[in-house]
Specification:
183 residues, alpha/beta, Helix Hairpins, five-stranded mixed sheet, 4 helices, 5 strands
Length: 183
């Protein structure tokens, strides 16, 4: 007979949420083909988008809609994870260790959310009207509303992200998407 502890339950739940998040992000970026930047030595990964299909009405999507939808989805996933972790913290049957781990993860999520918002605001102040930042443990992904991302722009964006998060350039992925709305 196998006994499942609360720590195992918490670990499993966090892994399942992480897997679902990665699957979602992978499906959102399935149309993008990753390629390193030209030989500039930056080491920043840039994903090249494929042509977007035109809806039945013949109108292309509004560039801002993608970014709004992505932020909403990111917030929904995070809200679900927070709700699950809060239920572990509030559950009287949870071990002290499980509660402590859930509280630590809640603090991590809060810090990641704060950093994402800060980075999006800084990138907007730098002239990139629409960006979405997703911070993960080992990688930071930036989706920018830029049609043609030059190596110089990729380096500028990656530098801002690196300074804010402490991640190295190889851990930063920049995905250009849509029409350029650089101010």
């Amino acid at each position: 007979m196998m006994v499942v502890t609360n720590k195992q339950t918490v670990s499993l739940a966090v892994l399942v949420l992480l897997a679902l998040t990665l699957i979602y992000l992978g499906s959102r970026n399935a149309g993008a083909e990753k390629s390193p930047l030209p030989a500039t030595g930056t080491g920043v990964e840039v994903a090249l988008p494929q042509a977007a299909p035109v809806p039945d009405g013949g109108q292309l999507f509004k560039p801002g809609d993608y970014f709004i939808e992505y932020r909403l989805q990111r917030d929904r996933v995070r809200s679900q994870e927070i709700k699950m972790l809060e239920s572990i913290v509030d559950n009287p049957n949870s071990t002290a260790e499980a509660r402590q781990e859930a509280q630590r993860r809640l603090l991590d999520i809060t810090a990641e959310m704060e950093q994402e918002l800060e980075l999006e605001a800084v990138l907007e102040a730098k002239g990139y009207a629409e960006t979405v930042v997703f911070i993960q443990k080992d990688q930071v992904t930036v989706v920018a509303n830029i049609a043609d991302l030059s190596p110089e722009e990729a380096t500028r964006i990656a530098d801002v992200v690196s300074r804010s998060t402490g991640k190295g350039l190889p851990d930063i992925v920049i995905i250009p998407r849509g029409q350029s709305e650089k101010r």
